[in-house]
Design a protein that fits this description.
single chain, 204 residues, alpha/beta, Rossmann fold, 7-stranded mixed sheet, 7 strands, 29% helix, RNA_MeTrfase_RsmD, transferase, SAM-dependent_MTases_sf
Length: 204
């Protein structure tokens, strides 16, 4: 049974999606992932987006650990209902609506998101059968909604190729856990302007 590992609701069991509709992140991988994110110091106060959310366990874990706001995006009706139950659980613990559920496919959700909607931490854990071209398209739409210094975590089969990152997003780390591989990416930082290109003092 999946559970919230740490934070305000640490140890609380989560409702799982029935059957084999989703491929939930194991507690072992989740614990290793959040240990790394804690080291990056990107969770507390963050705006979090959990795409292909499944049961919402990654987003709910973030809320338990102090994320400011979490959006769970899941298209399947049964999985979305499970997301809502897990969101209600953590919202009750923290005493506010920290987690919001959106029943939607990923690309339409990102297309509808206001241009000023920016997230600090994004989880993308699509079903393994999702084609790489579809993942690449979602990443392109996501790129315009990343806050400066944001972290994107993509979870895929260890046999899958590296995601095709948009030109304004770059991978900075990856880690394999058995059959699972995590890719970590961030917005690209524009090249610094060379000092010789700056006008000298007193020049226009």
């Amino acid at each position: 049974m999946s559970r919230i590992i740490s934070g305000a609701a640490g140890g609380t069991p989560l409702t799982a999606v029935p059957g084999s509709l989703t491929r939930p992140t194991t507690d072992r991988v989740k614990e290793a992932l959040f240990s790394r994110l804690d080291a990056f110091d990107v969770i507390s106060g963050a705006r979090v987006l959990d795409l292909y959310a499944g049961s919402g366990s990654l987003g709910v874990e973030s809320a338990s650990r102090g994320a400011r706001a979490v959006d769970l995006v899941e298209a399947d009706a049964k999985a979305s209902a499970v997301c809502q139950r897990n969101a209600d659980l953590i919202n009750g613990v923290v005493g506010r609506k920290a987690v919001t559920v959106h029943r939607s496919k990923v690309e339409p959700f990102l297309e509808r998101a206001h241009e000023t909607a920016l997230w600090d931490l994004v989880f993308m854990d699509p079903p393994y059968p999702l084609e790489e071209v579809a993942l690449a398209a979602a990443l392109r739409k996501l790129a315009t909604h990343l806050a400066p210094g944001a972290v994107v975590v993509v979870e895929r089969s260890s046999r899958s190729p590296e995601p095709a990152w948009p030109t304004d997003v770059e991978r900075f780390a990856e880690k394999k856990y058995g059959e699972t591989r995590l890719w970590f990416a961030e917005p690209s930082v524009p090249d610094a302007i060379e000092g010789d290109d700056l006008p000298a003092a007193g020049e226009d």
